[in-house]
Amino acid sequence: MKPRKIKDRIYWMGAVDWDRRLFDSLVPLPDGTSYNAYLIEGSEKTVLIDTVDPPMVDELLGQLENVPKLDYIVSLHAEQDHSGSIPNVLARYPDAKLICSSKAKNMLMDLMPIPEKSIITVNDGETITLGNKTLKFIYTPWVHWPETMVAYLEEDKILFSCDFFGSHIATTDLYVSDEGRIYEAAKRYYAEIMMPFRNVIKKNLEKIAPYDISMIAPSHGVIYQNPSFIINAHKDWMNDTPKNLVVIPYISMHNSTKLMIDFLVSSLVEKGVSVEIFDLTATDIGKLAITLVDAGTIVVGTPTILSGPHPNVVYATYLANALRPKAKFLSIIGSYGWANKTVEILAGMIPNLKVEVIEPVLIKGVPLESGYKALDKLAESIAMKHKEHGFK
Ligand code: FEO
What we know:
Layout: E1 4-7, E2 10-17, E3 22-23, E4 27-28, E5 33-41, E6 46-49, H1 57-63, E7 72-74, H2 80-83, H3 86-92, E8 97-101, H4 102-111, E9 119-122, E10 127-129, E11 134-139, E12 149-153, E13 158-162, H5 179-194, H6 198-208, E14 215-218, H7 227-238, E15 245-250, H8 256-270, E16 274-279, H9 285-292, E17 297-301, E18 304-305, E19 308-309, H10 311-323, E20 329-336, H11 342-347, E21 356-357, E22 361-364, H12 369-388
Parallel strand pairs: 6-7, 7-8, 8-9, 13-14, 15-16, 15-17, 17-20, 20-21, 20-22
Antiparallel strand pairs: 1-2, 2-5, 3-4, 5-6, 10-11, 11-12, 12-13, 18-19
Helix pairs in contact: 5-7, 5-9, 8-12
């Protein structure tokens, strides 16, 4: 794609990655993604904000063909999907200076061949002038590495936010055209990339609040002409109070655990609690992550295999622990045949989750009346706790 004008002398550049299906070899990308770079031509200086993932560098170099001089390249984030093509751009513009945060400098030099003499570090709140335009750098750590910052173009009121407010979506739309679609993509992105750092990110939201922002231009997905849409969504996702929702990731081998899941779902719904269930043999782990953004309770369902939980359940539990959702309660249900260390093993895997564990329900073989009674009691306990804590 050719450069696309956003405002006078400000252009989107970058690459749309339609076919990418995994990010960091982990995160599913059902809708692909994009790597957005931005060119700002001031009356005196020209700056490129971020670059693209290295396999797509030729797209960016083609877009820069009619740009005779680049004074600055800004690296808002050292991860290679934005920084990986900096060496190629520097090779084209050897006199350009690379601007980054103080923490990013060594990270960039650790990750790719960039001469130290090309790098200028900026402090939090520092500005550079491009002549008739001023770019201000605001440190916003942990969106999504510790060195991240955003850049605010004062005269045009544009916030260049890199990963912050991003969404993994491949589209020819430059701006949000379907808020529902972007909301889902941005929530998935938040769940997988930002949720573990939400307490720090809340402070970043407060930090950018005083700025008059007319447009947010992230480095993944579309540009927001209505910034409050995505800012308010983030505020909701980061709200400390979960929703009246139970998420049940599970595996069933011979249907006993599935019978338990079905009964528990029905009982919870009767008691006014919403439920989402995920069969871990086939689930999109990103969908599970999205529901973890809001869940008040997580119930892990697993059969016993080799005296412990099923390996797919171990994977999902490890991931949930890493993503640090705000759920307040957790329980474990499932069926076993003889030895059973499931609870012990899973309980040891969730040190990051600040949850109260509600008494698990482990049943030998196929569930019978006493088992269903125990599940009903579990549903009652969850519903009561959600009510007491004001989950809506
Ligand atoms: Fe889009 Fe953290 O890189």
